[in-house]
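Researcher: I'm comparing several assemblies side by side, and this is the next one on my list. It has 1059 residues spread over two chains. Same procedure as the others: predict the full complex and return the structure.
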Amino acid sequence: MSDRAPAEVRAQLERVLLRGLRAAGADPAETAGLADLAVRAAAAGGGPSAPGDPPVLDPRGAAALLLQLGRAERAAIEPPRMEPGDEATTTIDRLDAAMRAIPESLPRAPGEPDPAEHPARRAERRAAEMTSPDDLVRLATGGTLFESRAAVMRLDRFLRGDRGGFSVADPRAVAEALEMRLEGDLGPEIDDVLVALPGGPGGRARARRGRAQRIVEKFDRDVRRFWDGEEPVDPLPALDDEALATLGTYISDASDPIAGHVAETLRRLLIERSGDSLERIVSALALCGDERLVPALVRVLQDGTPAARMHAARALAPIDDPRVPAALRKAFRHAATVEETLVIGGVAAAHGDRVGAAAVAGHVSADQPPHLVELALLAMAHVGEPPHAALVAPFLESGRTGVARAAAVALGAFGDAAAIAPLANAAARPEMRPHVERALSRIRARLDLAGHHGAGPSTLAPPSSGEIARRPRTRLAARTLGRWHYALGVLWLLLGRRRAALRRFDLAHEHNPYLVGPLLARARIALRERRLDAAVTALRAALRVAASTVLQRPDRANLVIRAYLRYADAGVAAGQASRALEALDELLGYDLRFADVDLRLDIERRRDAVARIERGGVTP
Amino acid sequence: MTRGFADAAIESLRSAAPDGRAGAADGAGEIDCAVLRVADAAGGATVIVERAGGGVRASCSCGRPGCSHLRVAAKAFLGPQPAAASSPPRPSDLSAAPPDPAAAATGSSPADLASVLGGLLDALIEDGVGAGSERVDSAIESLVRSLRGADTYGLHRSIADLRRELSTATPSPDRVLRAVEVLAATRDALDAAAHSAQRTAHGEMSPSAVLALLVGRDVPLAEAEIRQDMSLLEIARNSARTPFGYRREERFLIDLATGARYAEMIPDPLDGAALGGPDRYRGSVGPFPRLIRGDLAAIEPGPDPRRIRLLQYRVELPVGADDLRRLPAWAASGVAALYADFVRLADAVGCPYPCFAVFAPARVVFRGGEAALLDAADRILPLARATAPDTCAAADRILARGRPELVIGHLLLYRNTLTLSPLAILIDLPRGERLLRLR
């Protein structure tokens, strides 16, 4: 046995183990070393050699020697100590370098972004460099999710009166502009900013917060009662849609017991394989992000059904946490379906990981099934870049509303001026108009930020279909007569004489086709009589007359949603999933921001389910 | 002994039914099911032999495939098995095909498990742990299949770690070698247990602390220490998907009265897999963090943190600030003490093994946004970035938000330095103290 140091012997043994005994034995350079290791292994208690035979290093002996050398090594380990006065942390640097044992990558060129840096960090830097509140509003409107969030956080300072570092701007106008951005995933953050402000935006934010707080506080009490044993039923799956949507939206403000309870319920539902409840809860959690739920959501991403995994990926999208990108990359690798690949690829791109970019772009093709094209287009909103506009724009003309809508969303995210003209033309379809408007506002905001003011056409194509392609002004007498018949119809309706009321509403519509009241009343009566086709036809006519007038009142917007949902349910029950899907897609095309959030959530969920049925994945 | 029972049973049946020799001449029917109760030190199990479909199926209530209860029952039907012809052990043949672990693992005695592990280790060492080979892959996958459904949770962990490491694009030599060390130490412990088992009446595995950790089987309740009226605070969770049909869910608890640390090990089934036998623990429930009033708990033998089963308990929400403030009193405040704990465990086990640690750092130093923990003597405990980069990055961000009071995790040896793979952090934030989980 040679008198080499244990560390040297260990290094050689490790080398042999990494290469393998077979390979090392065949290497003449290792022969002497192997003989020495064999002697040491025999001394360590390994090896079957008989007395007198030359020792041979076999697997058992090698393992015994490895363990023996490990014991000697452990006896010598000592904690590293920070040298006095070493606050520059060179000790830690040295340690880090030793720990990682990964060579540093090539240095980047000046200004080149760090590929490992999360997009949220770049967004924070970009927002921090902006001094104009108007530019920050533009960033909040046209930026990515993380850019919008960073802009809102910075505007918070401005609106709270800390004007240092900002150029002059009208706080009221800034608050109102911010409130316009309320639609979408930044709702709670914007409410946080607005809630402290006087005036309309502040009042409305306080009202929203108040409603949410009452629901969350009640849920908090229910959770405690459940764990105290006073309440036998888990309160989370028992929540109605409105409460669940509110909880999902404001989960980051909820107490630790609530967040912990949500995580525990997700675990239970996974074990019980309660797919529907799990999907319902996880889809509500996608309305906002909370880092406390990352372990639970990652678990759903790993263990859930494909549908639950897609919802979990969407729920992880807004969460700026280092654990998320790695979990998404792993989930992408293990995706079992194309749908999963597209959704997870898109969300991973939102977190700066373009692992799914090629798969997503490859599915933006007319040869693919429509539901995959739609998912790919939605993912393109994160994956795509301005040059992709030419690839996506043709889908604005798709007969399938969901596909056209997703194309508008993607084009809005690219921020390319070339998309303005096709988008403006797509506004001719009433169900596309709100999405086109949002996409155009995003593009214009980004172009303004880049210094290209007033790019592209400023007007949208007029509505082209239906009875109001052109709205000639009716004569005063006809308008008056129309209102008279409408008033009589309402009177008959109050007296319970539906048939007489319907006749009057028909007459009112005949005289004044631009009056939405009679159309809505017809829809209400048809809904009560379970004539869902007639109800949706009447509502469709009303929306073509004045979608904004109809949908800006919450009660009317809720009526529209309920009617369409029932119509879709009837379609599914009758085996006409495509018709149901078209109706839901049309509904999602309208501007529904004034409707109750639970109903909006219900449309998304119902659409998911119907799309699956249409693809033949599920039977109704 | 078994034959004696069979003979006695035949006599008993004959005396109860004197015309039994005539068979079922009166058309009363055929035997449809036979139930045998097999006694052992762990309380025994019930073996059922019944008709199923066109054949006959045998199953045991312990749920382990090829368990010792089935063998005892088989002897009752078949009589003693002929002894295998003894042959001297052959030296390792480098060109031989890999052993079929599936066949060996159908028995779950220490000797069977040691033999199965030996086959995998031979393949690894002969072909090279860093080189990768079909033989190694096939040995691992075969082992995974054969141990699926068994309750060898500690062994599952080691195999899963090795499998995960080998399946990465660039396996870390250090981590692969550590995994090999753990498997070699496990085999040695199983060998030792097999030799001692020969001296026990029922061939049961000796309940040593090492085996409890490395193999980690479910312990019958009769072997656990029963405790009452404990106040436990859950301080960390860990969760990992395994290839054995379950997700390993660990909850780490601390006894607020004594500072003793416990771990709940819960195998959560995946894909509707049936798991474990009668001793399988299905775990407690409740949101993290939680205060648990343990009215009745069973504590299994083993190293710190010992496995605990909460048999009767109540969950109290929310955890009060006073309870959280009691935690640092039970934490290690010096890095040297953590090193001593780690070395003690590694010496007992025979190899470096992840050591649960609750550390109260004196301060945290940041470099480029990355945190390192220091004690009052300026000894450094780095985070295990090479092993869990994302969890460590999440820990960095939490540590930067306030004054960290505790970092809870596993100590891992990397080269010659201990690192901490964090599981949870107790931090003093402007809104109060909060215990945040990372896994």
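Model: For your comparison table: Confidence is low (pLDDT under 50) at residues 20-27, 80-106, 198-207 of chain B.
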